[in-house]
Amino acid sequence: MNDAIRNLLRQLPSMDELLALPWVPEMEERLGRDAVKGTFSEVVGEWRQAFREGTREALDRESLTEEARARLETRSRRSLRRVLNGTGVVVHTNLGRSLLPPQAVEAVREVALGYSTLEYSLEEGKRGHRNDHVEWLLCQATGAEKALVANNNAAAVLLGLAGLAAGREVIVSRGELVEIGGSFRIPEILSFAGAKMVEVGTTNRTRVEDYAGAVTDQTALLLKVHPSNYRIEGFHQVPAREELAALARERELTFMEDLGSGLLAPPNHPGLEGEPTVRQCLHAGVDLVTFSGDKLLGGPQIGALVGRHALVDRLKRHPLMRAFRVDKMTLAAFEAILRMELRGEGGQIPTSRMLHLEEGELKARASRLAARCRRVLKARNEESWVGVVPVEDAVGGGAFPATPLPGYAVALRLPRIGSAGRIQERFRLGEPPVVLGAEDDLACLHLRTLQREEESLFLKALERVLEGRGR
Ligand SMILES: *Cc1c(COP(=O)(O)O)cnc(C)c1O
Question: Which residue(s) pair with 446 in the sheet?
């Protein structure tokens, strides 16, 4: 180490100096003294390293303390927070997929604040099963004989395959060996479940004869997977569920389907038809169907397995079930969602409501909000352009990828801030944070995914962005 570096290291502020900064007491109150000290050590350590490596050649005390302050500021804010979704993507996985209706939130609140019947039967005064809170409701909603829930659909699929096909062969079409959202890949799930994958057919066409020709005495299961997030257009063929069900019966195999989104009722929306409901799949002869609770169903993150008595009972006893079991708050929310479906109130669930919003209503809301934005901008003499533009919204969650939903957005041009990308950034870092879309270098707030009561919050966010204030 040369003298210059040694000299720089000596100049680094001591912990006592840093702890004497005027803003430290407030940070200590929010985070505790240890966290504040730890963050200072971290930042000083980084400067020390930079001096040693020669990436910094002078000490700037102000930027060092500012770095520490900014880091502590971030750490003292709640991390998982509400954002306004202005993207028009209804089932937005990164933004939390579904908004729960008040009935579900109330149910969560009740079991979160008090003890509950999670695994207790009041009738018998002894241990009950957490699955019992939703099993009958799921059977009612789908026509299944039995039902089971796991943490999410990925867990449901893994549980189904591990429980019914470990050590044996699973036949699946080459057109359905899909990847869903990063790490969920059908071939890998099969291998992880300990099953041997037997691919049949081609990417675009698979016939029932292909499945029949691949059955051996080692085959346990025929697997059908919803291709969710992609579409094959043109020369394309898959066998009907009824054909596969007949083959499975004849050869004494299990027919399992990963349905992905899990529609309980057909969506009465042009462009969204053609998707089978869970009930239709079971009716066509699928033995076990798995689906997500937080995609089109609009509930909490959960995975459902519904189907034949003997299969579901076997899976209930599988050791993986202990690892995949569902938390009480999730169960409370899911039970509330299923009860809404049962009462025919499924249309009030936010996901369903947003999917069914009409273009005319979205346009009217966009016009009203645009007028309110213009008033805010005018009051500040801000150079700007605010318009109402038609946009394409999306179902999201890997459902209906080829079905854009026609929507409307409030489009913003704010020359003082800059490009659409710059405007998006300022809103993301604002209060409340807003995630905007962009089109033709205009930042766009899609009305479909902005809740009515959030419109005033958006105007607050706009004011803060104009003031150049972050959080
Ligand atoms: C979304 C999806 C999954 C994963 O479900 P999660 O609930 O996100 O775990 C699995 N399979 C299909 C076909 C899907 O669409």
Answer: 409
- Closest ligand 1 atom to 225 CA: 13
Q: Which of 163-172, 245-254, 391-400 has the lowest mean pLDDT?
A: 391-400
Q: Name the band, by pLDDT with cuts 50, 70 and 90, for residue 469.
A: confident
CA of 260 to the centre of ligand 1 (A): 5
Query: Which residues approach ligand 1 with their CB closer than 6 A?
Result: 152-154, 157, 180, 184, 225-226, 228, 258, 260-261, 292, 303, 398
For 166-299, where are the alpha helices, taking DSSP H only?
186-192, 208-214, 241-250, 278-283
Rounded CA separation 122/128 (Å): 9
Q: Which two tokens stand for residue 45?
A: 């350590």
pLDDT in tens, 201-218: 999 999 999 999 999 999
**How distant is the alpha carbon of residue 38 from its chain centre?**
33
Number of C-beta neighbours around residue 378 at 10 A = 11
Distance 154 CA to ligand 1 centre (A): 6
Q: State how far the Cα of 17 lies from the Cα of 14, in Å rounded to an integer.
A: 5
Closest by Cα among 145, 159, 133, 147 to 337 = 133
**Strand, coil or helix: 200:** strand
What does the pLDDT look like over 414-443, one tens digit per residue? 999 999 999 999 999 999 999 999 999 999
Q: How many angstroms is it from 87 CA to the middle of ligand 1?
A: 21
> With contact defined as beta carbons under 8 Å apart, do 132 and 139 qualify?
no
DSSP 408-451: EEEEEEBTTTBSHHHHHHHHHTSSS-EEEEEETTEEEEESTTS-
> Is residue 448 predicted with pLDDT exceeding 90?
yes
Range list of H helices, 77-185 = 102-113, 132-142, 153-165
Rounded CA gap, 275 and 263, in Å?
Answer: 8
Per-residue pLDDT tens over the stretch 327-351: 999 999 999 999 999 999 999 999 9
Given a contact cutoff of 8 angstroms between Cβ atoms, the answer to whether 308 and 148 are in contact is no
Give residue 185's identity as a one-letter amino acid code.
R
What contacts 301, CB < 8 A, 6 or more positions away?
97, 151, 152, 292, 293, 294, 330
